[in-house]
TrEMBL record:
Entry function: Catalyzes the decarboxylation of oxaloacetate coupled to Na(+) translocation.
Positions in coiled-coil regions: none
Protein name per Swiss-Prot or TrEMBL: Oxaloacetate decarboxylase beta chain
High-level lineage: Bacteria, Pseudomonadati, Pseudomonadota, Gammaproteobacteria, Alteromonadales
An example Gene Ontology biological process: sodium ion transport
Quaternary state and interactors: Heterotrimer of an alpha, a beta and a gamma subunit.
Amino acid sequence: MDTLNTLWATTGIASLTFGALVMITVGLVLIYLAIVHKFEPLLLLPIGFGAVLTNIPLAGMNEAGGVLYTLYNSGVATGLFPLLIFLGVGAMTDFSALLANPRMLLLGAAAQFGIFATLVGAIALNLVPGVEFTIQQAAAIAIIGGADGPTAIYLSSQLAPELLGAIAVAAYSYMALVPVLQPPIMRLLTTKKEREIKMVQLKPVSKRAKILFPLMVLILTFLLLPTAAPLIGMFCFGNLMRESGVVDRLSKAAQNELINLVTIFLGLAVGAQLTATSFLTVQTLGILLLGAFAFCLGTAAGVLMAKLMNLVSKQEINPLIGAAGVSAVPMAARVVNQEGLRANQHNFLLMHAMGPNVAGVLGSAVAAGILLALAG
């Protein structure tokens, strides 16, 4: 009888708690969204699977010595995985559209307004009974508005690791919902005539300019905002490998093997933080609501900035491209292009939208550096 009791005690059924069951269900829902609805599958699939693994009773994968524990502490807690992701993203990024029209930096900067407005909103939520965010937690939540998953993970791992799981899920969920959330905002803030505006063809950019740009960005970063140097530095290094043309093997490895491998590890490590004690809280609901608010506000700010620029610009700007100022590359640019074609079937805005889109990547990294400086 004692042997039978021992065997029963070692089964998952006997040790399964209600909270763990709920979180396993959450993990399965994320897997479903990734496979069936194609919602950011590269991250939501490993995150969902990591959530299932970490909530398996008695497996110990998220305890000292476990594989998920090791992945998290070696790659996420140290900030290594997000930085390597930025290296790969930099190697895949083409700044031609931004260099051909530098004014697009303003749109990328304007789209970060949602981040700082949400910082204030997260602190204001402390007035709600049961909700209490520190300045560090509020800063980590606010970065969701940049629609940049690696940046959100990096900042939350530095400022509020206890909220990492909820912030990562919110960030990647809203990135996946770009085609759903952005179009209504874009149509609400623009007229049909504005959406039909055709922009002049972009000028070609020299190879020298492409090589000098990441170096100039890095120099400005360490002079003005060194706290953003880890993210922007890795991003610029990846981009320099791409544009230099002398290390094609390294550039291709960063774009493919490296970023793919790190994405797997990052997703599993983030999923390991989706436990009942850290996720099933009132704070998580606040994070999801604030994340949606930040993202929508960032989209609106980008569109309104484009409309403002039209008042002083000799060459008309289609306000739709302001929505691409969030850092969801290249999905936000594709959504802008679709809205432009819907208004005028001959209006192709993809290359124009890529300017503020890549500017948004830099903008979200700069915003993260500012938040680290203020709240770190």
